[in-house]
Amino acid sequence: MKKSRGRTDRKRRRKHLQSSVDGVNYSHKLEYIKLKKWLKDRGFEDSTLRPAQFCDTGRGLMTTKALQAGDLIISLPEKCLLTTGTVLSSCLGEYIIKWKPPVSPLIALCTFLIAEKHAGEKSLWKPYLDVLPKTYTCPVCLEHDVVSLLPEPLRKKAQEQRTMVHELYMSSKAFFSSLQPLFAENTGTIFNYSALEWAWCTVNTRTIYMKHSQRECFSLEPDVYALAPYLDLLNHSPNVQVKAAFNEQTRSYEIWTNSQCKKYEEVFICYGPHDNQRLLLEYGFFAIDNPHSSVYVSSDTLLRYFPPLDKQRNAKLSILKDRDFLENLTFGWDGPSWRLLTALKLLSLRADEFTCWRRALLGDVISARNEEQTLNITAKICHLLIEETQRVLLQISQLKRKKENLKNHLALVEALRLEDLKILQKSAEILCNLNMATA
To answer: SET domain spans which residues (predicted)?
Structure first.
């Protein structure tokens, strides 16, 4: 009797451990039951993946069996994919075909998503639409107060993203109006800015790459999007490798893993070797301890430590600009990048060393003094960025207390800034060791 109770306790503990460490299985939830049935009707065979909620990544997919490198994770039939072909075969097709100038494949997909969402119960895609996020955390969705706390150049790119989506909306209004015969309500209320923002984020964050042949009814932008229900629940990790492509023989989109995964663990795919700023800009999230992550140094910060009276200053800047050495200057987990050190090395050249600028760009040692000054200025820039990051983190914590409605978005930027701080502190440590070694 006693032995039996011990075994039951162990089972209970194991079950608790499984749900807290690996995730809580969501297969029983009605929206996922409906989605799986909808997919099955379209030829999708049940895989070993189950929808689940995870502590670190939120919603994702867990595996019910251990996966080995070379295993097929998921195979989604063509009938399950939402592409421009799907849009053209819908009631929107004839309106897209006759509209001039042609709409882009992106706008076609956005229009379809908005129209289907509006259709509600009547939509054939309702089971998929029901599991799509209601809101997104891409910079285009963030309030101005939150965007202003993003690091450069992400702040600038976020503003460009917002402008681009707004222009997309303005340039598509006439096309949206042409769809009026399809709707009882005014198209202006259906296809409003917030509806387009949601549809754009859905396409931008969730599509897989799938090349389609060019159609005359679309503009010349590449038609490379496909929305992949269920498959798009897979989250990104920079530490896994996968092979993903449309299989012409099976007429399915397939993902094969090159990594191992234990039973009941979350299954990840990799969107590419993106740093956290790129991940946040394109997908609205970032990865903790991302090996590809960087903190960017703007050209303004770079020049703060060089005397404006340096007679070669303009010539040095011209050399760096012509050779694209004023962009993508970074600190990473392994310290300052080669590009950053090289730019600073060239800027640190004395008048009598200036003729050696080509050698400096190749990474050659010009003089002990030049090496020392380069490291000193790099360390100063690193400490400046640490102070700036700490200042912004203080602002965020104050804003979180004042603006309850922005709490989630502020927490996202705060986490990104804390990750930046870890990178900069690691770089400062590396630079300190380098300075000691060269002293």
So the answer is: 47-272
